[in-house]
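#onboarding

Welcome to the new folks! Below is a worked example of what a typical request in this channel looks like: someone posts a single protein sequence, and someone else replies with the predicted structure as tokens. Don't worry about understanding the tokens yet, we'll cover that in week two.

Example request:
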Amino acid sequence: QVHVVESGGGLVQAGGSLKLSCAASGRTFSNYAMGWFRQAPGKERGFVAAVSRRGGATSYADSVKGRFTISRDNAKNTVYLQLNSLKPEDTAVYSCAASVRVGAPLIPASYDYWGQGTQVTVSS
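Example response:
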């Protein structure tokens, strides 16, 4: 089992930046791929980014490529999401999740443990 806790969300102006953190505990962190998902009002939860167990592989949604960066520090049991050049359409609740799968999975069903989510709001 893995306990996942996100932090770093907030209100920012369009074009600004945020850095989200996701701290995990309970089992060996390096045994899990980690992913970020987001859900906007009235929309289904969608994939944002993922990173493999040792950080060697990453996946990004087309809508965030070139703007967001996922990384992990296994010594700190933490995964990060750097959000740059933010747009109003990035507004959503961002959730972190852990997966026992190999690689960097893109679908929610591949993830086993989920955090509570953190709100990101981008004003125009």
